[in-house]
Every structure is written in C-alpha cells, then in structure tokens.
Amino acid sequence: MKGEGTVNGVRIKGDRCGTSDPQVRFTYLFYGAPAMDLAEFKVTPVSRVIGASLAVSPPLGDYNNENLINTGANRWTFKPEIGISNRRGDWSLEASFGARLFGDNDSFAAIPNWSRTPSISSRDTLSTTCCRGAGCPLTATISGADKRKRTVPKAMTGRKIRGWA
Question: What is the pTM of this model?
Fold first, then answer.
C-alpha cells in the first residue's frame, strides 16, 4: 500500500506492506429469492428482492501507532446496509443504503483518541439485458462522512460521488 498527503502542514509519504483488517458479512433476505437449484432458478421469475447485511471488520490488521500510514485501522468498523432489487422484463432497478460506523482509534499518531461520525452511503443501479444476454448497468454511488468528532486536517476529510455506465 502506498499513500501520501498533508497532515498538519507536513507532507507525508509512505509505503507499507502488511495485512489489512479482515471483514466478515452476514446477510439475510426478507423477501423474494427463495432457495432454488439451478434448474428452478433459470425458469422462476423474480420481481422483487429485499435484504439486509451487516459487515464487521475487527482491528486485526498490521498497525504501528508511530506511522501515519498503516494497512490496519486499529478500530472496529460496522456497516449495516439494506437493499432492494426490482425487476420488470429486461430491466432491473437496485438500491442500497448503509452507514459505516467506526470505533475509536486511541493510538493514531497525528490525533490522540481519533473518532469519526458515521459515513452514509447509497448505491443505485439501473440495468438492462442487451446483446446476447450481457448486462448494461448505469450506476450512481454517493458516499461520505459529515463531520468528525474531533478536528482533523482538511486533507483527511472528503466526500465521493461517482457514476459510471
């Protein structure tokens, strides 16, 4: 992993190797998409699916509190998410909404007891089946964090809005 940025007016550049924090995801389907074998799946129309997930990332990756750039985050992270998928003919509309919740990092070198507020995300996809069964998706992703509990340098904050076809 490589990174660079400005923290408290000081340009930081680093290159780290190591393990990152693992992530495990638990999912549950509330509605639609019952368990099927392949033959049933091919002939059964599914119009709506609603589900939820919880991703958990424990702080097990490599972390050195003297480095500003680490492969591990040294904090617990949780991401609850709910999603819905609607299909009509060859068209599919999917949406998911979630929030990434962060534990405190009491060992971050630049800011003692660094805390973050949740990062909210939304992903919306409209797709259709086009030539020879290939999918043609149009996706918009909106994510970002509001404010940190403690003041952090502007270079460490941000919002992302992406879209692609």
Answer: 0.68
